[in-house]
Request: fold
Amino acid sequence: PVMLAFGALTTVLSGAVTHRLLTASGVIVVALGAVMINRGLILTGSGADLASLMTSWRSPAPVERAQQQDPASKTQTIEMEANGLGFTPSRFTLLRGVPVKWVINATQVTTCNNRILVPSLNLEFDVKPGRQTIEFTPEKTGVIPWSCWMGMLRGEFVVFDATPAAPSQPPAPVDSAVQGAPQATQSPPASAAVQKTYTVRRGDTLRAIAKRLYGDEKRWRDIAAANPALNHKKLRQGQIITLPADAQP
Reply:
């Protein structure tokens, strides 16, 4: 109808206006052709349509994970709602080789969402009002595109291999004789013992401290060795120094 209207107008308008109308009609024809080609690519499920290419260039939309998605499970279940706005959610992750139960709750069936096509799985079915379950088994990893029969509403299944969980190691057996025996306590090494300290008094020297604590003033060298940063010639009252472990309390 739009093209017929443009054709009728060209008979009554001037040449300049007619040229502009023909240019506009050409642009519209090209745009409509591109839209139809894109919808055809969607229906093939090849992933070469515009939406699939844009998804590969940017971060993907959120993916709904299937329930009971465990390699040991016999089935995996995904749930989707079909309404006047389309399908929600429309992207799911699945495990390869595990049968799928695709539960569709159609709250509103339209002329667009009333039929779904999954070309790579040779799957095509009508969407019925209420709940229905479609069953299939994905045998290959990768992205499986699907859409409504018009190619306007689309979705994807992302299929991947399950990573087997590492087997848990059982605890090592304990000999009953050893289990009943009393456990020996291990004393901490001598190096872990708390170091002794001494608070310098008025008039103290290392020789006087060694004489008082060890009974031998020559042990002042041991005290000096335990305090390498200490200036033994200038002791200050209240200064705390470290003592060798054999000092008397």
Helices lie at 2-10, 15-44, 50-57, 176-180, 206-214, 220-226. The two ends are 110 Å apart (CA to CA). The longest strand covers residues 76-83. The domain at 194-243 is CATH 3.10.350.10 (Membrane-bound Lytic Murein Transglycosylase D; Chain A).
